[in-house]
Amino acid sequence: MFVDVENIHARIFLALPAEVGSLIDQLASSNDRLWPNERWPAMRFDTPLGVGAAGGHGPIKYCIETYDPGRRIVFRFTSPKGFDGTHGFEILSAGQGTRLRHFVRMRLRGTARVTWPMAFRPLHEALIEDALDKAESSLGFTPAPRRWPLTARLLRRALRRVQS
Length: 164
Prior knowledge:
Elements: E1 5-13, H1 17-25, E2 44-45, E3 54-57, E4 60-68, E5 72-79, E6 83-94, E7 97-108, H2 112-138, H3 150-163
């Protein structure tokens, strides 16, 4: 499938694949150690993690298309309109460490050709880096200090004003 967007974020941890993979298995649970719900809308599903579970975070909605516990979870976008594709997390071998990777692969249709690059992408970039920082902390490491890019900070500020 041709894709308009292929967005990859990854971090390598000096930890066993099972340790890193457990982060995927706890997504959207009361013990979620990966999703940065302290700073972003929580990830929620209508049923426990499993193929067919529907949910999302904020205005982004999706259903679980593939779930291989401890290794990979793939979500198929159902909203916003024009996001035609998938995103997910996967565990990969990385020499003596384990790579946790988040990916987005999608075609953009209609207004999504504008909303992805102008709004959703900058927010996505900040959110996923926060998720990888949370994973790093959850595994007992100290993430490097990081600040959201200016575009993400401005968008978040604008969203707070609109929601007030």
